[in-house]
Amino acid sequence: MLSYARPIRELIEQLERLPGIGPRSAQRLAFHLLGAGPERAENLAQALQSLHRQIRVCEECGNWSVEALCPVCASDERDRGTLCIVADAKDLVALERAGEYSGLYHVLGGVLSPVEGVGPDELRVAELMDRLERLDVREVILATPPTVEGDATAEFLREILGQFEGLRMTRLALGLPVGADLDYADQVTVARALRGRTEMSD
Amino acid sequence: MLSYARPIRELIEQLERLPGIGPRSAQRLAFHLLGAGPERAENLAQALQSLHRQIRVCEECGNWSVEALCPVCASDERDRGTLCIVADAKDLVALERAGEYSGLYHVLGGVLSPVEGVGPDELRVAELMDRLERLDVREVILATPPTVEGDATAEFLREILGQFEGLRMTRLALGLPVGADLDYADQVTVARALRGRTEMSD
To answer: For a surface tag, which of A41, A173, B65, B180 has the fewest beta carbons within 10 Å of its beta carbon?
Structure first.
């Protein structure tokens, strides 16, 4: 019984370990890269090698960054009175993409999860407290995801941030996604959309 | 507006160019590789670099190979009287996996496709003729895929191989896939399964 030549097999094995890529996709990708010539594979290899060599964690907010400070923290055009706390750097990018926010961020590096052994010490909570003492923050947006664990994390932060007097604490609005079909929305989302209904302006 | 740091963006761009990987998956894969630490990305990078450095085309059959001859051509346990002609090296692996065939292969490198400008000169047809003159082949299995182009390629080969007297030429059977639901099979397949029906043995 013949199988793939060793270098092909090794590439398939590496690709299979990526999330969402099964044995068939891994095989298809490997043969695609074989057929596409050496340059494509080499470019991808170099992008992979640059990743960890060039990317580090922003000393201030925990975002991925090439410099010691990420572009948000380094910018002097951001409102330093608002701090948006996100679970993950991906969430930061999603918020930036919305183009609605001009404050600073703090990346926790996850959410509290007793099941997975993630407590406050595993998250960048001490760094958050330190920043709040240093900075002159008026509002903290608790933008952890609207899941059980994200809600629990926001609740935990609300409690420990209570020590900063006069600090406004907000959470992202829940409701129907824009463009959604009411019929397809889950009942919890519809309930939250009803509860959070807003006055129509003229 | 902030986007991903450049090394992340470059990896996402490279990943997006792979078949079946859209912007969202590329983003998810890049962040997975960031989170998984440098070793995973480095291993994948090395597998990619080894691919074209170590893999070449078997001088004899056109299969992917590390050596000058692929394992099938180099083996002295294969039946050298049977030659199975496949469009692609992937098809060769699929046939090997079935564990039913012990002859040699010939990889065409595609199928005839006037639309895409693939004629006999773009395929390894001259090499096939050369091998049939050199080798002592009794049977040729035309295992190009059961598609319009694969059928046309098999038909083309049947004609030009007519010059080899006494050469048996066969084509893979068409019918229902094992385990298939008749109800879900397309009508052309059901028609071929009926036409190709076989006697039940005791």
So the answer is: A173
Is residue B31 one of the residues assigned to a domain? Answer: yes
User: Which residues are paired to B139 by β-bridges?
Assistant: B82, B168
Picking from B3, B31, B42, B44 by the largest number of A CB atoms within 10 A of its own CB, the best residue to mutate is B44
- Are the C-beta atoms of A65 and A57 separated by less than 8 Å? yes
The pTM of the full predicted model, rounded to 2 decimals, is: 0.74
- B94 and B24 both lie in a single domain: no
Total count of domains within chain A = 2
Residue B2 has pLDDT above 70, yes or no: no
Q: How far apart are CA A64 and CA A101, in angstroms?
A: 18
Two structure tokens written together for A180:
């959604």
Contact map slice: B 95-154 vs A, CB within 8 A: 96-97, 99
Q: What is the pLDDT of residues B18-73, one digit of tens each?
A: 999 999 899 999 999 998 889 999 999 999 999 999 999 999 999 999 999 999 99
Among A17, A41, A97, beta carbon nearest to B52: A41
Show which of residues 66-105 on chain B sit within 8 Å of chain A, judged by CB atoms.
66, 70-72, 89-90, 92-93, 96-97, 99
- In 10 A of CB B33, how many CB atoms? 24
CATH number at B165 reads 3.40.1360.10
Domain span holding position B178: 77-199
Residue A79 and residue A58: Cα distance in Å, rounded? 18
Residue-wise pLDDT tens digits, A127-168: 999 999 999 999 999 999 999 999 999 999 999 999 999 999
The answer to whether the CB of A189 falls within 8 A of the CB of A160 is no
Confidence category of residue A1, pLDDT binned at 50, 70, 90: very low
On whether both A47 and A130 belong to a single domain, the answer is no
B133: helix, strand or coil: helix
More confident residue, B79 or B177: B79
Contact B51 A7 (CB under 8 A): yes
In A, residues 1-40, which contact B (CB 8 Å cutoff)?
1-8, 10-11, 13-15, 17-21, 25, 27-34, 37-38, 40
Residue numbers of A between 147 and 186 with CB closer than 8 Å to B = none
Instruction: Find the Cα–Cα–Cα–Cα dihedral A15, A19, A22, A23, rounded to 10°.
Output: 30
